[in-house]
Every structure is written in C-alpha cells, then in structure tokens.
Amino acid sequence: MTGLLGAAFAFVKSDWRLLLLLALAAGLGLAAWRIYAAGAASEVARQNANALEAHRERVVIDEKLDRATIEDLCRRAGGGAGCLSLQSGNQPAR
C-alpha cells in the first residue's frame, strides 16, 4: 500500500501540470454542459410561452364566436342581405 501511495505521490510530483490541465478541461466541459442545458431550458420556456399565447388567442376567438349569432357570422363571412333569412340550425327560412 505504501508503495502504491509513493508511486501516486511521485506521479503527481512529476506530472502536476498534466493533472492541472485535466482538471481545467473537466471544469470547462462541465461549464459548457451547463450552458447547453440552460439554453435548452430557455428554448423549452420560449416554446411554452408561445403555446400559451396561442391558446389565449384561441380562447378569445372562441368566446367571440360563442356570443355571435348565426346572422353575425354570416355577415362577417360576406353574406350580405341573405343573412337575414337564416334561422338557427343553419337552414334558410322558407
């Protein structure tokens, strides 16, 4: 055991620059990984925010359509005077 410890101490004493370089490389690798992970989390957050905004827009449109009558929808679609003859059930009056 003492021989192994002595060999390890001799290796560190002779190649301390190599060990320092390996530690620096490991630290840089971890920093790069953290930056990548933060970027990925930021992208997911951006996508979630866009999805939430699109959902809110759809809700507003749905609420407007729920309040509209069949005649209102017909006029918005460009139906003109023919919209007055519509009844509920989307069938023209006879």
Give a verbal description of the structure:
With 94 residues, the chain is mainly α. It is built from three helices and no strands. It has helices spanning 2-14, 16-67, 70-76. The chain is rod-shaped, with a radius of gyration of 35 Å. The mean pLDDT is 85.
What does this entry show, briefly?
The chain has 94 residues and is mainly α. It has helices at 2-14, 16-67, 70-76.
Distance between the termini: 104 Å
Strand percentage lies at under 5%
Largest sheet entry: none
Q: Give me the number of helical elements.
A: 3
- What general form does the structure show? rod-shaped
- Category from helices, strands and their pairing: mainly alpha
Q: Could you tell me the mean pLDDT?
A: 85
Helix and strand arrangement:
Elements: H1 2-14, H2 16-67, H3 70-76
Keywords:
single chain; 94 residues; mainly alpha; 3 helices; rod-shaped
